[in-house]
Design brief:
Elements (H helix, E strand, L loop, with lengths): L4 E7 L4 H5 L7 E3 L2 H11 L5 E5 L1 H11 L5 E7 L2 H11 L4 E7 L4 E7 L5 E6 L21 E5 L6 H13 L3 E5 L3 H6 L1 H10 L3 E5 H7 L5 H9 L4 E5 L5 E5 L2 E5 L12 H14 L4 H15 L9 H14 L1
Parallel strand pairs: 1-6, 2-7, 4-5, 8-9, 9-10, 10-11
Antiparallel strand pairs: 1-3, 6-7, 11-12, 12-13
């Protein structure tokens, strides 16, 4: 469950246009629908690619490419972007449980500078209109895991209703904290949700530090582990730490030639959850997460093509 955004990647010939559009290089700016359209119009369609995106959608894409039966719950507009989002999901046999709004669909426009740095103009649109009462009554009945992106946490009633419904259906809840500023703004609520409903918690160093109010590495992991059954702390090039009750596992990072780090955490979650779904050891779950994370940062954007996934599937099979 997450923000349903269409990722649009546009290549810039130089950075002058960023100044014209008042978009600081390397930043992520929330914009309105008119500005989003102006950005696309100004840049043109130079090297444009698009895909169904958003943090949870990226994770679901990863799982679907590894052959896992998945669905995605989100909200889109009744427009070409919403139709594209649905079609892109269906192309991977992901069940698109998409609510519709009269507001335009959300878009995340990534402007790629010649040095590969990305500047985002994000229009959230219909994606942020999903409400607790929108959740279909039987939506979790066919699933074993519910994965939630932290960016949704600002809609606290929605999250609370979703995790309660999941618990009623015996569905395990996985939460990715998503961003340290989201954690800081919703700290007490997040801690309560993690303590009462979350089974699997993903956090990077900054998010963990915010969540524990200053702790790092194993100290942060230990603290979070008292609230949650399973905690995964992602440490970038240092690998990751996994805690499950009294078990502690350290996973090495996979060597990569990074081009764009977008999607690294989302794909780590996909690999880790794939391992859990297939009853693999925590070490193997982490190894598969590290592999997917390393490979996605070697391409521009959070999606990999079918040839890359074919190769990855074979590597995952060996790790399994």
């Amino acid at each position: 469950m997450g923000n349903a955004l269409v990722d649009i990647l546009l290549k810039l010939e130089n950075d002058l246009l960023l100044e014209t559009l008042a978009l600081p290089k390397g930043s992520m700016q929330l914009v309105d629908s008119r500005t989003a359209a102006d950005v696309i119009r100004a840049v043109g369609h130079n090297g444009a690619t698009k895909a169904s995106g958003g943090s949870a959608a990226n994770t679901i894409h990863g799982l679907a490419n590894l052959g896992v039966k998945t669905g995605f719950l989100g909200k889109v507009g009744k427009d070409e972007w919403g139709a594209f989002f649905k079609k892109d999901m269906e192309s991977l046999d992901i069940d698109p449980i998409l609510l519709e709004s009269n507001t335009q669909s959300g878009r995340a426009i990534a402007l790629i500078s010649p040095d590969s740095e990305r500047t985002f103009a994000t229009y959230l649109g219909a994606a942020v209109e999903m409400r607790a009462e929108d959740i279909p009554s039987d939506v979790f009945s066919d699933y074993s895991y519910l994965h939630i992106e932290g960016y949704l946490v600002q809609n606290q009633e929605l999250i609370e209703e979703a995790v309660k419904r999941a618990r009623q259906h015996g569905v395990k809840v996985s939460l990715d904290l998503a961003s340290f500023n989201v954690v800081e703004e919703n700290l007490e609520f997040l801690r309560g949700i993690v303590r009462d409903y979350v089974d699997i918690l993903f956090a990077n160093e900054e998010e963990a530090k915010s969540f524990t109010e200053g702790l790092e590495d194993e100290a942060a992991l230990e603290w979070m582990g008292k609230l949650c059954d399973m905690v995964i702390l992602k440490l970038g090039a240092e690998g990751s730490l996994i805690k499950h009750k009294t078990e502690l596992v350290r996973v090495k990072a996979v060597v990569a030639n990074p081009v764009d780090t977008t999607g690294a955490g989302d794909l780590y979650a996909a690999g880790f959850l794939y391992g859990l779904i297939n009853s693999l050891s925590l070490k193997k779950c982490g190894d598969i997460g590290a592999l997917l994370s390393a490979r996605v940062i070697e391409v521009v954007g959070p999606k990999m093509d079918s040839q890359m996934w074919e190769k990855l599937s074979k590597e995952v099979e060996k790790l399994s």
